[in-house]
Design a protein that fits this description.
This protein folds into two domains: 182 residues, FAD/NAD(P)-binding domain (3-Layer(bba) Sandwich), CATH 3.50.50.60; 153 residues, D-Amino Acid Oxidase, Chain A, domain 2 (2-Layer Sandwich). Helix content is 28%, strand content 26%.
């Protein structure tokens, strides 16, 4: 067998011709769009096109810090993300693709009495919903993470932490590729470098998608475009309660493994984990301005370096190798917007994920597929309808998303 034959055999997804129409057109080839396509195909809906203006996973799915957890604050959020964690636990086997999922545990540290009270409330809410979370104290924290400064002389002493054993990290690009390959093998068509320029409507229905490669008729159109979801929604005359902010992160040079927990500090607006390659991944809060810019900034690097050293003084000589930014679609209540849009039939939303959309890829994909196939909103999706903003039924998750992951 020559090299060309090997490449043909091993291709991850096919280059199919673009047809004039599909039962479902999904805008956005990130984890949410590809997961929705994959679970649709599992349910027998294979006449599906996934469009992206760039390469697969080029948006938030390729620019996040790949933390998985379910220790949220509201009953709606806890149940939703817990289902996603359970799906992630079996996803590598289902997709037959190594996702490098490490459930190493997740620690949210508290530096004040008020923060301890907040974590206690979250722990109790989690436990009532069947999610493994509990408060731990400095002695136990030090045993878990010896490199973490838990001394009383620290500028921001650590008083306690919320320990969430199922939490961990995953290889985000592997998840995207695994879903793309799985969807393709079941007959889904994936079209990178295909930008959506408009959506046609008639008689209250979204009818077709206009692209740089021509018009595509669609039975159902799904907006899964994360930070750019507002621009797509405007094409059908819908104004979303979403603002888009840059979110920055960086990685260090590889180090000998010393950190097998995800560490989060809402007070310092920082989270830290170590990859399988030994790099430290450092993330922070969203930038305090709206923008679609992917540019990294020096103030971010200065702030995150200072805050990281307050937690881990021993890494002061470590070099930063790479810094990047993504775009986050923030809602007023820090919860997503999913499902149908009143008055616009055939146009569905899977947006508003802010800084925590990657961890919800499997659950959002399977529930959106259920909605499309059954034409009935699954119970777990109901609280996240866009109608909650009209009815003042917000799902406030800021307490569990005070730092961006």
């Amino acid at each position: 067998m020559d090299l060309l034959q090997i490449f043909k055999r091993e291709r991850m997804w096919k280059m199919r011709p673009l047809r004039n129409g599909y039962d479902v057109v999904i805008i956005g080839a990130g984890v949410h769009g590809l997961a929705t396509a994959y679970y649709l195909a599992k349910r027998g809906v294979t006449n599906v096109a996934v469009l992206d203006r760039s390469y697969i996973g080029s948006g938030a799915s390729g620019r996040n810090t790949a933390i998985i957890r379910s220790n949220y604050r509201t009953p709606e959020g806890i149940a939703f993300y817990d289902m996603s964690v359970k799906l992630y636990e079996n996803l590598a086997k289902e997709l037959d693709y190594n996702l490098l999922f490490s459930q190493q545990g997740h620690l949210t540290v508290a530096h004040s009495d008020a923060s301890v009270v907040g974590l206690r409330v979250r722990a109790e809410a989690n436990r009532l919903m069947g999610v493994d979370s509990r408060l731990v104290w400095p002695d136990e924290i030090k045993k878990m993470v010896p490199a973490l400064d838990v001394s009383k002389s620290a500028r921001y002493p650590i008083l306690a932490a919320l320990y969430h054993p199922p939490g961990g990290i995953i290889r985000h690009d592997a998840v995207v590729w695994g879903y793309a390959r799985g969807a393709d093998r079941r007959g889904v068509s994936i079209f990178p470098q295909t930008e959506v320029t408009g959506i046609t409507r008639s008689n209250g229905h979204a009818r077709s998608v206009l692209t740089t490669r021509g018009e595509i008729q669609a039975g159902t159109i799904v907006n899964a475009t994360a930070g750019h979801c507002s621009t797509i929604a405007q094409m059908v005359g819908l104004k979303l309660p979403v603002t888009s902010h840059p979110l920055q992160a960086c990685v260090t040079e590889p180090l000998k493994p010393f950190l097998d927990k995800v560490i989060v500090s809402a007070t310092l607006h920082i989270y830290v984990s170590q990859t399988d390659r030994g790099e430290l991944v450092l993330g922070s809060e969203i930038d305090p301005y709206t923008s679609y810019s992917f540019r990294s900034t020096l103030p971010f690097l200065q702030n995150i370096a200072g805050h990281a050293l307050q937690l881990f003084p021993g890494i002061r000589e470590v070099k930063v190798l790479r810094q990047w930014a993504g775009i986050c679609d923030m809602t007023p209540d820090y919860s997503p917007i999913m499902g149908e849009v009143p008055g616009i039939k055939g146009f569905l939303l899977d947006v508003g994920w802010g800084t925590y959309g990657f961890k919800a890829g499997p659950v959002s994909g399977t529930l959106m597929a259920d909605l499309i196939v059954s034409r009935s909103t699954p119970e777990l999706l109901r609280p996240f309808s866009i109608e909650r903003f009209y009815e003042n039924k917000l799902v406030g998750e800021k307490a569990a998303a005070a730092v961006s992951h």
